[in-house]
Amino acid sequence: MSETTSYPPVAIVILNWNGWNYLHRFLPLVLNSQYPHFKIYVADNGSTDSSIQNLQHEFPSVSIIDNKNNYGFAEGYNRALKEVKEEFLVLLNSDIEVDSQWLNRPIELLKNDPELAAVQPKIMDFHQRDQFEYAGAAGGWIDRFGYPFSRGRIFDILEKDKGQYNTEEPIFWASGAAMFIKKSAFFEAGGFDPFFFAHQEEIDLCWRLQLMGKKIMACPASIVYHIGGGTLPKNNPQKVFLNFRNNLIMLYKNRSGFERCYILSIRFALDAVSAWKNILSGQPSYFIAVMKSHFAFIGWWVSHQKKSVFPSVRSGKIQGLFNGNVVWEHFIRGKKTFAEIVN
């Protein structure tokens, strides 16, 4: 068996928008990855901070894909990945620290399982390194009503890593902050939904992949450290708006029939409760963002569905789905950890 067969070529694709400070800090560690065949691409989304010029000067071995404009996370990656020839891809945020062995086990899993489409490493907090990080933790799940959570993260509650999620197992979604994925599966599923722009597009993609009969896996042997909030802070009104709007669109697209109508009606009510709770807590911008997201969803439903990517099939077995309400379990019943909720 040749080395290329054992270690297939890997493309590490970093989407960048005015993130030269992160690229300068973390690219040397990515370049130090102990894997025989990998190539780094930086897909630039119209940066104005001299990212391209600095990359050319300081990291000449890195290939640059110039998207010219800021197409957001979703369409930015859709465009960039069309320019990449490798089958095994890593979508990596610029604000992530990796160790030298982070590539090996996820690529081995993808290579050896034809049904496996995507893998997520364990994502730890860069500043509190024994704690899981918000954007995916040890692997993403979702509840019946579309609320995403993770092994190690329930809403804003982040667990310490005590080895409790050190098993390789199926999950619902792999974080876009550090996603290993087969190029063929990515484009067979239709890629990221460009209408989303940013936030929850990876959950939507993983849902479509599962409906196609593909699997998503957590791989805790691979560990990365994420700063987080590099583009928009967590409570930024635009981030709140995109999260709520895109989540509703995702539910509409991937559910069907009575289940779709029932779940969306419940979600509108739960979102309204969340919005009123925040305005009473002195956060009117949160309230406004949630209300805007509801009107934007209705606008999408009326006029813009053709801009979205719908599932091509709906027959796959869904893993990582909690058939309950994580809001009820966490805020009413007081459950703080993933294990308390799903077990």
Describe this structure in words.
The chain is α/β, with parallel strands linked by helices and 343 residues long. It contains 12 helices and 14 strands. The strands form 3 sheets. Strands 1, 2, 3, 4, 5, 6, 11, 12 and 13 form a 9-stranded mixed beta sheet that branches. Strands 8-7-14 form a 3-stranded mixed beta sheet, with no helix packed on it. Helix 9 packs antiparallel against helix 10. It is globular, with a radius of gyration of 19 Å.
Instruction: Assign an overall shape.
Output: globular
Distance between the termini: 43 Å
Average pLDDT: 95
- Secondary-structure element series: HEHEHEHEEHEEEEEEEHHEHHHEHH
- Derived from helix and strand composition plus strand pairing, the structural class reads alpha/beta
Q: How many helix segments?
A: 12
Summarize the structure.
By secondary structure, the protein is of the alpha/beta class.
Relevant terms:
343 residues; alpha/beta; 9-stranded mixed β-sheet; 12 helices; 39% helix
Task: Give the helices and strands, then pairings.
Layout: H1 3-6, E1 10-16, H2 20-31, E2 38-44, H3 51-58, E3 63-66, H4 72-81, E4 88-92, E5 96-98, H5 104-112, E6 116-125, E7 140-143, E8 148-150, E9 153-154, E10 157-158, E11 169-170, E12 178-182, H6 183-188, H7 201-211, E13 215-226, H8 237-254, H9 257-280, H10 284-304, E14 321-322, H11 326-332, H12 338-342
Parallel strand pairs: 1-2, 1-4, 2-3, 6-13, 7-14
Antiparallel strand pairs: 4-12, 5-13, 6-12, 7-8, 9-10, 11-13
